[in-house]
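no rush on this but wanted to send it before i forget. theres a chain ive been looking at and ive put its sequence and its fold in token form underneath. i want to understand how the tokens follow from the sequence so walk me through it. thanks a lot i owe you, the record is right below:
>
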Amino acid sequence: MLTGHYATALIPYELTRKEQRVGFWLFLLAAQFLDVLMLLLISVNIESFNPPNFFEASFSTITTNMFVSHDLIPVIGWAVLFGLVVWGITKKPVVALWCVGLIVFHELCDFIVGFEHFVFGTDTAPIGFALYSNAPVAGMLLEAVMCLAIVLWFTRKRANEGNPVSMMVKVGLYVILVGGALSTIPVATQSLNSLFGLSI
């Protein structure tokens, strides 16, 4: 899952913003932590993402090995560690628990819409539907629906409380989150090179 993870950060931010007064960036970091970690691990050749050339990749042909950042057992450890760090820095257990929840929810979302994950390593049991590989268009549509539902909830909750978000923010959320998910559909089964006749 890609933009769907960004969308999930809106939930704890909205539910805690009055009492906890923590910046949205912290929840956004928690929601994306596993992917940031994955990119770091790929850059030092601990994890892999193939083909390495972005322009040659389509979701249906990408293979990954994210055994440190995205396999089930490591994710539990990362979630607890992230939560303890947040608790230590902010002294706010509610915020720390939300951050743990966002990381765990990231993993659950990836089980439904994402690449193949395992318990811990490719020699253990695979987990999830791996829709990005097996049915990428369906996965991207599910992600767009989730983003739509979260943005609708967020904007309606603000409006019902008499503190509506501006039209610019509302449009921005729909374009970035829902539009971002839908924009990946063209590369579900074809690479950018094949779509546009590139040779990059």
Notes: The radius of gyration is 18 Å. The first helix runs from residue 3 to 8. The CA atoms of residues 79 and 168 lie 33 Å apart. The chain has nine helices and four strands.
